[in-house]
Design a protein that fits this description.
Residues 283-571 form the UvrD-like helicase C-terminal domain. 52% of the residues lie in helices and 12% in strands. With 687 residues, it is an alpha/beta fold. Bound molecules: adenosine-5'-triphosphate (ATP) and magnesium ion.
Length: 687
């Protein structure tokens, strides 16, 4: 038996060695579920002679996939890892659809719309600018899709006028996407799942290919993912799923814990393995987590224990307001790092909502504390990044109309709204993309030669780049090899002349910081192209995917404090954790806008909501290895109002016996200016 196997506890080992049929590992946080998956992959390859190409491991985020790949590299020879698939569901969906594009009625170069683009399409169809309404329709469509409900079914199911409206939009939305040769994120899962169930030849091919599947964070899969896994593993039922029903935090995205309950029914031979030893956290942290989650009903009783010692008491710090909170957390981290002789990256600040991160970013900058936003979508949501990516998208797929419009109008190159409308009409008439319409005679007639000129220049430039980037070689045709991705990218950037555009349209500081972001993007793209030996065409095809769940920080692991939402921290661990904003109205967060939301109207709905928030709290607490600090503010500003806050119910649910220590913020009662003075004093004292 290998050393790695020897170091596991008997239950973990059983889960790794079990190959007689489907296997489900159900266990609490930090009990080594993810470790079981990595060890099992190593075991399959090293000791059972599995070909890596037949193994598919699915994780929830790109980051988790990367971490898993790194761990496996330590125990399996490189050459035996060739062809191993470790990816997110969505990334596997992209690969599947690129290979099977024809069966899905797509060209291999189809575009992937992110949720903002998709919202744009819905906006056109719904003809409203009411953001709330648009988002609710988008979410409704997404839920339907993921539950495998077709537009026809949706129309039958819809009851209220709003739902009927949404169902109508759903139909045209799907048709529009197909016309654009585009798919949205949901399609990446839904289309493969459907194809697997309707196309026999394709199903058999993939089933032969997939010899063993491993799925992490199983509790957060949705109906469609369940079906897809089910059909992929169809022939042999050879899979291991690991999960924790107490960590299900994506119900709002259509995930259903019922998938866990359904497994034993759908697979009578299922082997269920529970793990109870926690290897991550000290007792104070673990007890608090156990206490909180014990208030939720759960599928299978479980109680975690660890041998890592009692640990320091959990601290609860009361703050005057959110500014004091950010400063105080920054100060505490600086002081603690000094005292414990730790690294910045041993610290994490976890919050409920992305918006809370901003103040921490600003404050940490002032305090000279290095930080990274872990798992934030923020980078790729920035306007400047989306602008540049629009160009790359149009290079990848000229039928991507939304990208075309964005690229051709940013920077302005003399293409006015009237020209675009006329071009749109032409495209509709010819039933082609905006891009292709430019060179049609009709366009010249409608738009006029002078107005058309800048559009032609744009299209010709893109065509030229496409050709040189290696587009259209999937059929093995073209004779000239693709030019280097880096050089081509430079050429595209020069053509866009984005830096000048920024300085022309924005004030200097903003332009500077945006341009920095753009440079970061292009450097990262070049590095990626070089490392993976990609052509520009291949590179741009990956982009939408990377932007999906998080920014791919690649192998960068800077020594910096992690700022992250609790959602994005799932599966990860940090020695010292600060959970901030642990207040009623924030965590639990019960409604969209007002504090207790409309959920309050219905006691049952409210309870469901609180349970989901409690699981989120549980996920947050269990990220901590050695020490946990919770903070809450007596006042928090919202819009222009100061709201009076109460500590979260989850704090009292943790139980004082776990050694809770309540501390009053040292800055209490001070004005911002006084705080700064005191802060400087404290910093000086620390040297
Ligand atoms: N048998 C073991 N011996 C020593 N350390 C272990 C063992 N099993 C797991 N660990 C360590 O415990 C920590 C938690 O493991 P892991 O991340 O696999 O837990 P998990 O169940 O996936 O947690 P989560 O539910 O948060 O995803 C990791 O640092 C891992 O390396
Ligand atoms: Mg895990």
């Amino acid at each position: 038996m290998s050393d790695a196997l020897l170091s596991m506890n008997p239950a973990q080992r059983e889960a790794v060695l079990y190959l007689n049929g489907p296997c489900l590992v159900l266990a609490g946080a930090g009990s080594g579920k993810t470790r079981v998956i990595t060890q099992k992959i190593a075991y399959l390859i090293n000791e059972c002679g599995y070909d890596a190409r037949g193994i598919i491991a699915l994780t929830f985020t790109n980051k988790a996939a990367r971490e898993m790949a790194e761990r496996i590299q330590q125990s399996v020879e490189k050459k035996r890892l060739k062809g191993l698939t470790i990816s997110t569901f969505h990334a596997l969906g992209v690969r599947f659809l690129r290979e099977e594009a024809v069966h899905a009625g797509l060209k291999p170069g189809f575009s992937i719309l992110d949720s903002t683009d998709a919202l744009g399409v819905i906006q056109e169809l719904l003809a409203t600018t009411d953001k709330g309404r648009l988002r609710s329709v988008q979410q409704q469509i997404s839920l339907w899709k993921n539950a495998l409900i077709t537009p026809d079914d949706a129309e039958k199911l819809a009851e209220t006028p709003d739902e009927q409206d949404a169902a109508r939009v759903y139909r045209s939305y799907d048709a529009t996407l197909r016309a654009y040769q585009s798919v949205d994120f949901d399609d990446l899962i839904v289309m493969p799942a459907k194809l697997m169930s309707t196309n026999d030849e394709l199903r058999e091919r993939w089933q032969r290919r997939c010899r063993y599947m491993l799925i992490d964070e199983y509790q957060d899969t949705n109906v469609c993912q369940y079906q897809w896994v089910r059909s992929l593993t169809g022939l042999r039922d050879m899979f291991t799923a690991v999960g924790d029903d107490d960590q299900a935090i994506y119900a709002w995205r259509g995930a259903t814990i019922e998938n866990l309950a359904k497994l034993p029914q759908d697979y009578p031979a299922l082997r269920l393995i529970k793990l109870e030893q926690n290897y991550r956290s000290v007792a104070t942290v673990l007890d608090a987590a156990n206490q909180v989650i014990s208030r939720n009903p759960n599928l299978f009783g479980k109680k975690l224990w660890s041998t890592l010692g009692k640990g320091e008491p959990i601290q609860v710090v009361v703050m005057d307001n959110e500014e004091a909170e950010a400063e105080s957390v920054g100060m505490r981290i600086s002081a603690s790092r000094f005292e414990r002789n730790a690294r910045w990256k041993d610290y994490a600040v976890l919050y409920r909502g992305n918006h809370q991160g901003r103040l921490f970013e600003q404050t940490f900058r002032e305090l000279r504390i290095p930080y990274v936003i872990a798992g934030g979508q923020s980078f790729f949501d920035k306007a400047e990044i989306r602008d540049i990516i629009a160009y790359l998208r149009i290079i990848a797929n000229e039928e991507d109309d939304p990208a075309f419009i964005r690229a051709v109008t940013t920077p302005k190159r003399g293409v006015g709204q009237a020209s675009l409308t006329a071009l749109g009409d032409t495209a509709t008439q010819l039933n082609c993309s905006l891009f292709d319409a430019v060179h049609d005679e009709q366009a010249a007639e409608r738009i006029g030669a002078r107005q058309l000129e800048p559009l032609k220049v744009f299209v010709d430039f893109i065509r030229n780049i496409q050709w040189r980037a290696g587009r259209g070689k999937t059929d093995g045709g073209a004779a000239t090899p693709a030019e280097g991705a880096s050089e081509l990218l430079d050429e595209v950037m020069k053509y866009i002349d984005y830096e000048r555009y920024l300085y022309d349209t924005q004030e200097e500081r903003a332009a500077q910081s945006r341009w920095q972001n753009v440079l970061e993007l292009t450097n990262w793209l070049k590095r990626k192209a070089q490392e993976d030996g990609l052509t520009l065409a291949q590179l741009v095809q990956h982009i939408a995917l990377i932007t999906m769940l998080e920014r791919s920080e690649d192998d960068e692991d800077p020594d910096a404090v992690r700022l992250t939402t609790i959602h994005a921290s799932k599966g990860l661990e940090y020695p010292y954790v600060h959970m901030v904003g642990v207040e009623e109205g924030l965590l639990p967060h019960l409604g969209k806008d007002d504090e207790y939301g409309d959920a309050n109207k219905d006691a049952e709905a409210l309870e469901v909501r609180i349970q989901e928030e409690r699981r989120l709290m549980y996920v947050g607490i269990t990220r901590a290895q050695f020490h946990l600090t919770l903070t809450w503010c007596k006042k928090r500003r919202k819009a222009r109002e100061d709201l009076i806050r109460e500590p979260s119910r989850f704090i009292s649910e943790m139980g004082l016996e776990s050694g809770l220590k309540v501390v009053v913020d040292p800055f209490s009662g001070m004005t911002p200016k006084e705080r700064l003075v005191k802060l400087k004093e404290m910093l000086q004292k620390k040297g």
